[in-house]
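User: Run a structure prediction on this.
Assistant: Running it now.
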Amino acid sequence: MSEPSRCQWCGTDSQYVAYHDEEWGVPVRDDVALFSKLILDTFQSGLSWLVVLRKRAAILEVMDDLNPRRLATWDTSRIEQAIVDERIIRNRAKIEAAVHNAGCFMEIEQSGLSFSDLLWSHVGGKTIVNRRTWECELPGFTPESESMARDLKSRGFKWTGPTVCYAFMQAVGMVNDHRVECFRWKACC
């Protein structure tokens, strides 16, 4: 049996292929799951997604599953413990930003807003379905990701620029950027 047609970016690495086939572009609406994914995308900044993917299990283990309600309680000693753990991406600024952003998440939640509704509002509450045939057509950011980045920045978030926001939007199904020929395109519409 032949392999299904996929987006070329996932290559042949089994972890990358599984991520493409099972997660990338699938709409996520849960507040905590969205926060966790956003933080993983901030960790990607300057790195390949495959690096983050290979360290994801350890990051989740070390950093309280990236649950904002738990991360928001971290103190300096917890941050220092994470920074010395060789299994994760040990970038102090990114780890500190994750803890800081958890506090921002808590402020949103305490104000009565849904983090999911807030983020999805930047795409009108539904997936933007693109009809790309070549991956070179993928932009680094869009007006929607710029809007999300501005909104998050106004709420105090760090490391959430328009490029990070666009990668996040693709990953959580706010934007369907699977190639039309990819077997996942229709499923993610």
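The radius of gyration is 17 Å.
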